[in-house]
Amino acid sequence: MNAKLPNVDLACFARPDLERLHPRERATHAPRILLLYGSVRERSYSRLLTEEAARLLHALGAETRTFNPAGLPLPDGAPQDHPKVTELRGLAAWSEGMVWTSPERHGAMSGILKAQIDWIPLSLGAVRPTQGKTLAVMEVSGGSQSFNAVNQMRVLGRWMRMLTIPNQSSVAKAFLEFDEAGRMKPSAYYERVVDVMEELVKFTLLTRDSAAYLVDRYSERRESAEKFSARVNLRSI
To answer: Could you give the CA distance from residue 217 to residue 215 in angstroms, rounded to a whole number?
Structure first.
């Protein structure tokens, strides 16, 4: 190794290891996908799109769980042992990948979806609930097609240290895209949802066994778990 790096702690610095990127022992269980949606309306198009995505994921061989945001308090508006918070954090820990689906409201993602993400911390002690997990983002809108919400969710996915897949879905005039039973009608929008879910499962299968190594960082190897937890703890701000 080149020793002309006076600012690098060589004890924590290492070249990427191909064996750790491609472990010989690989998980055989179904990919575990958590789905979050951003509306509590009785006929919520983000929920209907999420339910359609869950059906596709099942057909693609994944195990899914969907979190119902009804009753989730505002971030910091209740203790962390609130039942809905405990449920959400448990599902985040269980998952290997996620789907976030939001309506676009006032040109942005909904506060309901943002609240769910805000309740999932970057760190729970030495455990990082989202780091290295895959993410697919989708949005629905009442007007013409837009990408404001999915773009925002991509920023959040990066902040939560997730592996956001390249593809995404934006369903315009969502009130026209679902039948009375709540099923999505055949369309180019529907085919894009199929594409996104297929890609999510592929990326999850590809990365889940090496996820911890993929997001292992030099800077964090140099600090203790206690220091890391204090640095990312929002209550210290």
So the answer is: 6
Length of the chain measured in residues: 237
Quote the DSSP letter at residue 224.
Answer: -
* Residue at 182: amino acid letter: G
User: Residue 115: its pLDDT value, please?
Assistant: 96
Closest CA to 119 of 64, 151, 81, 152: 81
Average pLDDT over residues 127-153: 91
199 close to 166: Cβ distance less than 8 angstroms: yes
Burial of 61 per CB tally in 10 Å (0-12, 13-18, 19+): exposed
C-alpha–C-alpha distance, residues 193 and 168, integer Å: 8
Distance set, CA 80 to CA 83, 119, 121 (Å): 9, 8, 11
**Residue of 87, 198, 60, 47 whose CA lies nearest to 134:** 198
Extended beta strands in 68-222, E state: 97-103, 134-140, 163-164, 169-171
What pTM was estimated for this model as a whole?
0.89
